[in-house]
Amino acid sequence: MALTGCVGPMGIVGSTGAGIYTDVSGPILATGNSGSTKVGQASSEGIICVATGDASLKTACANGGITKIHHADYHS
């Protein structure tokens, strides 16, 4: 239990925790907006209960110049 780390909250995805290593990814949402090839990314990092960064959809859209979302995926 002492080696398990988690950083929360992680929004719609939920928090994750693992003893040594966790690798999880998948879709969050999809809309009817199509026809664009823009990509936006945002990230955050957590080490020993200290979180830094902003992994929100709002930040990812701003980083990619996106105004309408077609789909969003996550990887943690």
Distance between the termini: 20 Å
Order of helices and strands: EEEEEHE
Uncertain ranges: 7-11
Number of strands: 6
Name the helicity range: 10-25%
The portion of residues forming beta strands comes to 25-35%
Q: Judging from the principal axes of the Cα atoms, what is the shape? A: globular
The tally of structural domains comes to 1
Q: How confident is the prediction overall: mean pLDDT?
A: 74
Short description:
This protein has 76 residues and is mainly beta. Helix content is 11%, strand content 33%. It has one helix at 57-64, and strands at 5-6, 17-18, 25-30, 43-47, 50-54, 71-75.
If you had to describe this structure to a student in words, what would you say it looks like?
The protein has one helix and six strands, in the order βββββαβ. It is globular. A hairpin with a 2-residue loop joins strand 4 (43-47) and strand 5 (50-54). The chain has a two-stranded antiparallel sheet. A two-stranded antiparallel ribbon has the order 3-6. Strands 4-5 form a two-stranded antiparallel ribbon. The protein has one helix at 57-64, and strands at 5-6, 17-18, 25-30, 43-47, 50-54, 71-75. The protein has 76 residues and is mostly beta strands. Helices cover 11% and strands 33% of the residues.
